[in-house]
Amino acid sequence: MSRKLKVGVVGAGAMGTSHVATLAAGVPSAQVTRVFDMDTARAKSVAEAVGGGASDSAEALIADPEVDAIVIASPDFTHADLAVAAIAAGKHVLCEKPLAVTAEDARRVVDAEVAAGRQFVQVGFNRRFDPGFVDLKGSIVDGSLGDVRLLHGIHRNASNTTSTDDATLVTGSMIHEFDTFRWLLDDEVVGIRVESPISEGFRDPQIATLWMAAGQMITAEVYCNAAYGYDVRVEVVGSGGSASLEPRTPVVRRIAGQGSSSIGSDFVAHFIESYRLELAAWADASLAGDVVGATAWDGYVANLVAASGVAALHSGAREAVDVPECPGLYT
Ligand SMILES: NC(=O)c1ccc[n+]([C@@H]2O[C@H](COP(=O)([O-])OP(=O)(O)OC[C@H]3O[C@@H](n4cnc5c(N)ncnc54)[C@H](O)[C@@H]3O)[C@@H](O)[C@H]2O)c1
């Protein structure tokens, strides 16, 4: 039998629990051996459900010989330090987005990989593995839309317990859009403006306008407390047509003169297949000593865009995004 990747998971909340279950049920090349969470009872029950055990600390989990590679699914502020520790231990990492809260912290992860002379980190920008997003990118790459001029993104949660203020809406939620746009267009963001119809308290929703290096413009609405459900859409508009990723609406009912379809509120359920494909690609690449998907550099650049986005929300002006030269490790 071929070797399995022994995985340790830090953080057993919504994402960590989902990742543990997906690795156990849907990724034959991986086996969850350890889980750590500040809530030790939770870590124990999540680990034992898949035949693993709880670790006493994140440091112990990273050092554990029963752990080949690490999934980081603890809160955003813990990501950079954990990723740097895993790199120091020579272990592959799937780090949930964002790579860090600040660009400076994300840069520490990049610098650690450059110093090590190899990549270890995949950032959990799962949309890169979502079949719908992959299909959408295909219609950009194959030229059927002509020259792409505009993108429009919508990202709404029914409610959100992790993006709870002006800045974390950008660094924790809108950061998905920043990576998605860079990846879809294979280009860099050069400018961003972020506005909100709300002037006091938590400024939710926010609308970003982004400018890409090749000239395309993008609008991105992120609404963390949209109440009605989870809703992610993107439309690409080109000189030859448009393509849009619509929400999944499996059944439309027409009853008593009314048409309706259901809208779920669970982001894990919405993107579950993308998480499975992401974890499977990560496990296979880690066993081969490779990194696929979004790299630490991609995570860092997304944090740079987010930093300019937060500055723009405060200034009300278009802010520049200056991406430094990419280290050779990532080119
Ligand atoms: N890729 C995606 O689509 C996606 C979606 C949601 C969340 N996320 C990211 O996943 C991460 C987890 O989010 P969540 O929704 O599961 O949050 P959550 O609040 O449900 O879970 C976080 C867990 O981390 C634990 N924890 C807190 N501090 C810790 C520490 N220092 N060390 C270890 N564990 C600690 C908590 O006890 C909790 O169980 C966040 O970084 C979030 O941004 C990604």
Name some characteristics of this structure:
331 residues, alpha/beta, Rossmann fold, 10 helices, 25% strand, binds nicotinamide-adenine-dinucleotide
Q: What does it look like?
A:
By secondary structure, the chain is α/β, with parallel strands linked by helices. The chain folds into 2 domains: 5-126 and 272-302, Rossmann fold (3-Layer(aba) Sandwich), CATH 3.40.50.720; 128-264, Dihydrodipicolinate Reductase, domain 2 (2-Layer Sandwich), CATH 3.30.360.10. It contains 10 helices and 16 strands. It has a 7-stranded mixed sheet with strand order 3-2-1-4-5-6-15, with helices on both faces. Strands 12-11-7-10-9-8-16 form a 7-stranded mixed sheet. The protein has a two-stranded antiparallel ribbon with strand order 13-14. The two termini are 35 Å apart. Bound molecules: nicotinamide-adenine-dinucleotide (NAD). Nicotinamide-adenine-dinucleotide binds at residues 10-16, 36-39, 42, 58, 73-76, 78, 96-97, 124, 126, 162, 172, 267, 271. Residues 10-16, 36-39, 42, 58, 73-76, 78, 96-97, 124, 126, 162, 172, 267, 271 line the site of nicotinamide-adenine-dinucleotide (NAD).
Write the layout of secondary structure elements.
Blueprint: E1 5-10, H1 14-26, E2 30-36, H2 40-48, E3 53-54, H3 58-63, E4 69-72, H4 79-88, E5 92-96, H5 103-116, E6 121-124, H6 131-141, E7 148-156, H7 166-185, E8 189-195, E9 206-212, E10 217-223, E11 231-238, E12 241-245, E13 252-255, E14 258-261, H8 267-270, H9 272-287, E15 294-295, H10 296-315, E16 319-320
Residues 10-16, 36-39, 42, 58, 73-76, 78, 96-97, 124, 126, 162, 172, 267, 271 line the site of nicotinamide-adenine-dinucleotide (NAD).
